[in-house]
Design goal:
The protein has seven helices and twelve strands. It is of the alpha+beta class and 266 residues long.
Length: 266
């Protein structure tokens, strides 16, 4: 009887292992709950990104834009009128607060032309309809001169009896002046007979424009993707996310082992 009692009082390896696993199982479980909650919230947001319009929702928070390293634009200019403002921020063109173009290089000038909208950079000319939809892009392959520097719109009366007004577009380039035909197809070297009024930016600029320009580079869908993958916290955070994944695996295995151990005696 004494030997049997002594053998039963000695802890077994399973008992020691279970006793050691229980506190770690609880700690890892609490940590994993926070990680799972983060994955669930961001995962649901990503799956329903279109319904929530996350891809069309720009980030307005200055601290988050700073964290991503999105700097304010270097070149900001305002054209058009107060009723129909045109803004240029580096290589972007805005109709009001709606971005309508992202050019390959910095935009120089923009103006309204009858029922059209025209903009130029160093090597290309962009034509839009009155709603801001891009209709045509011209460059050297279509006959546009190179080295654009400025844009001017000349208005004159074609028929004095009907008071029909015609607008002609002029371009100042590194190689001289060019005038287009009424269809904006052919560009002809010419010298203006009268001084041209080149389109220049206004002195005042919308104070909110810089913030809109920064926000256009980041939307909430991108933030959710980076948060879900861990990249929001830097390159090394991906390894931390892997550790969290390993912790989930350990919680699952230890929980399964503890459950099997407790159900066997029952």
């Amino acid at each position: 009887m004494t030997r049997k009692h002594k053998s039963q009082s000695i802890p077994t390896i399973r008992y020691i292992l279970a006793r050691a696993l229980r506190p770690w199982h609880r700690r890892l479980g609490i940590l994993s709950c926070l990680f799972i909650l983060l994955l669930v919230v961001t995962g649901v947001a990503i799956n329903h990104s279109q319904a929530l319009q996350l891809n069309k929702s720009p980030v307005q928070q200055t601290w988050l834009l700073d964290y991503y390293g999105i700097a304010p634009p270097h070149h900001v200019a305002q054209f058009g009128s107060q009723v129909q403002p045109l803004f240029v921020t580096d290589n972007r063109l805005w109709l009001g607060h709606e971005p309508i173009l992202e050019a390959q290089s910095q935009l120089i000038s923009a103006a309204f032309l009858s029922n059209l909208l025209i903009a130029i950079d160093n090597d290309q000319l962009y034509l839009f309809d009155s709603q801001g939809h891009l209709q045509e892009t011209q460059n050297s392959s279509t006959g546009l001169p190179k080295g654009l520097e400025a844009l001017a719109i000349e208005s004159f009366t074609l028929d004095a009896t009907r008071l029909e007004t015609v607008n002609r577009v002029w371009l100042k380039t590194t190689s001289g002046y060019y005038q287009t035909d009424e269809n904006l197809i052919d560009w002809i070297p010419a010298q203006p007979l009268a001084p041209l009024h080149w389109v220049t930016p206004k002195d005042s600029v919308d104070a909110d424009l810089i913030q809109y320009a920064r926000s256009a580079n980041l939307n909430w869908e991108r933030v959710m993707l980076d948060l879900h993958s861990g990249r929001l916290f830097g390159a090394y955070a991906v390894w931390i996310w892997d550790i969290f994944g390993l912790a989930l695996l350990l919680v699952s295995l230890s929980g399964l082992w503890l459950w099997v151990k407790q159900t066997k005696p029952r």
